[in-house]
Each structure stands twice: as structure tokens, then as C-alpha cells.
Design goal:
four-stranded antiparallel sheet, Immunoglobulin-like, 45% strand, disordered C terminus
Length: 206
């Protein structure tokens, strides 16, 4: 948010007499934001009121640059050259800096005794993070993703459980991320699972 973004049309040396139109479709509108054409031998370029002071069209390439971009500028941008002869689409999503995802927290869950078929005592932990726009929460074993969750309900916290052996020596990380940032918290097996493992009187704990 507040940055400068260029949507590259990918053309090189467009003919001087082409008509260029840029459209923006947001949640509640679909408008022409820039239009450039040759009228009576002169190039005439018009911008919509909303973008007038922030938009710059390059007639050589068809690209546009948006200055001081904001959340309301998110949406689909569509470029047309000479009507519908050549058309390109761009999806733009703008995030505010405060949308940086917080670090996830890992805590211990109550776990049951291992079954007869289990190789040893189990430790159950849960990772949680405050939900936000496009936030995803994941458990990793080394570089291998084990499970993942997300939710469109921003009023809840995301959480993921993980069950491992008490003496597991693998590295486990819980990762929270969105399109602008990511945060990783490493599971400390010794602290959460092994610390009280030899202490009596902790039924149900690792």
C-alpha cells in the first residue's frame, strides 16, 4: 500500500495510431481508467477521475504505472488494443503493511497413553495463530509439509494439531504466512514433550 506498481503489457513499439484502453473491475464497478487514441493527428489520453493523478500510460508498450496504490485499487485490470483485437488481464491484490502475519504459538495438548500398536509414548502439541486475510497455517517436518489449514472466517484463530513420538529427533516447524509475510516457530520437543516425561504424577502428559 502506497507503493508504485507497473502492469507490463509486454508489447514493444506499438504503432502510433493504435487505440489503448485500460479497464478496472473492482467489487462494485467496472470502469475505463485510461484511454489513449489519435484524434485528428494528435494523441489524446484521458484518465478516470479516481486515477487521474496517480496513473501513467506508456503508449510505446501499452503498460500502465499506478502510483500510491491502495486497497481499493485491488481487482482485475484489463487492457484492450484496438478494441478486442488484443486483450490482456491482470489481477492485482493490495495489502497494507499491518497485514503482516504474527508469529504462530505452539502449546501442549492433553494426550492419551500410547496404544499397544504404538512404538512409544506420544506427545500432542497444537500450533495457533490469529487469522487474517489469506493467512495459511502449516506444519513442516524438515522441508516436508505435513498438514495445512486456512479459513475465510477472520473472527477465529487458526490452529493445527500435531502428534509425535516423545523421543522424536526430527525438526518440526509451524509456519504462518500470507502473500506479504511469513513467520516460523520451531517446535521445542525437549521443552514441551520431554521435560516432564520422567516425572511421576502427570497422567495424560508427555
Amino acid at each position: 500500500m502506497g507503493e508504485t506498481v507497473t502492469l507490463h503489457a509486454g508489447f514493444m513499439g506499438l504503432q502510433s495510431n493504435v487505440q489503448i484502453q485500460w479497464f478496472h473491475r473492482s467489487v462494485d464497478a467496472n470502469i475505463i481508467i485510461a484511454q489513449s487514441q489519435v484524434l485528428r493527428g494528435e494523441i489524446k489520453t484521458d484518465y478516470s477521475d479516481r486515477f487521474r493523478d496517480r496513473l501513467q500510460l506508456d503508449r510505446q508498450t501499452g503498460s500502465i504505472t499506478i502510483r500510491n496504490i491502495s486497497i481499493t485499487d485491488s481487482g482485475i485490470y484489463r487492457l484492450r488494443i484496438n478494441g478486442e483485437i488484443s486483450e490482456k488481464r491482470f489481477r492485482v491484490t493490495v495489502y497494507v503493511l499491518s497485514a503482516a502475519v504474527p508469529a504462530p504459538l505452539i502449546g501442549k495438548k492433553q494426550s492419551h497413553s500410547a496404544g499397544s500398536g504404538s512404538s512409544g509414548p506420544k506427545c500432542s502439541v497444537v500450533c495457533s495463530v490469529e487469522n487474517g486475510r489469506d493467512v495459511t497455517l502449516s506444519w513442516y517436518k524438515g522441508k516436508e509439509i505435513l498438514n495445512q489449514t486456512s479459513s475465510p472466517d477472520l473472527n477465529i484463530n487458526l490452529s493445527l494439531s500435531l502428534e509425535i513420538e516423545d523421543q522424536d529427533n526430527n525438526t518440526y516447524n509451524c509456519v504462518a504466512d500470507n502473500p506479504v509475510s511469513n513467520q516460523t516457530t520451531q517446535l521445542n520437543v525437549t521443552e514441551l514433550c520431554n521435560k516432564s516425561g520422567s516425572t511421576s504424577g502427570h497422567t495424560g502428559n508427555c
